[in-house]
Amino acid sequence: MKEFTEKVATTAKNVAKTTSEKACELIQLAKLNIKLKAKENELEEAYECLGKLCYDQITTSAENMALIDIRVDNVRKIKEEIEKIKKEISEIK
């Protein structure tokens, strides 16, 4: 009877540990997905701003290539951050 009780206790501990680990993974995935969505929204805003600058460049002959270059660099950085987050997510899954 003692062996049976010890097996049950050990099994219960293992199940609790596994459940806890999976819960932590799910929480981490949720946080990363929220972070990913925020970065994707930031990327959309960066594209919108870049589009406005390009439109102004074309329609008003405004000399804003320096600003456009800055915005293009910003888009590039955001896309890199998105890829890093996606990689983190795939490593957890």
Secondary-structure map with pairings?
Layout: H1 2-60, H2 65-92
Description:
There is one protein chain. 94% of the residues lie in helices and 0% in strands. It is mainly alpha-helical. The protein has one domain (2-92). Helix 1 (2-60) packs antiparallel against helix 2 (65-92). The mean pLDDT is 91.
Element order: H for helix, E for strand: HH
Summarize the biggest pleated sheet: none
User: Helix fraction?
Assistant: over 70%
Shape: rod-shaped
Mean pLDDT: 91
Work out the strand percent.
Answer: under 5%
Q: Termini separation (Å)?
A: 40 Å
SSE class: mainly alpha
Could you say how many structural domains there are in total?
Answer: 1
Rg on CA atoms, Å:
25 Å
Low-confidence stretches: none
What distinguishing features does this structure have?
93 residues; mainly alpha
Condensed summary:
Helix content is 94%, strand content 0%.
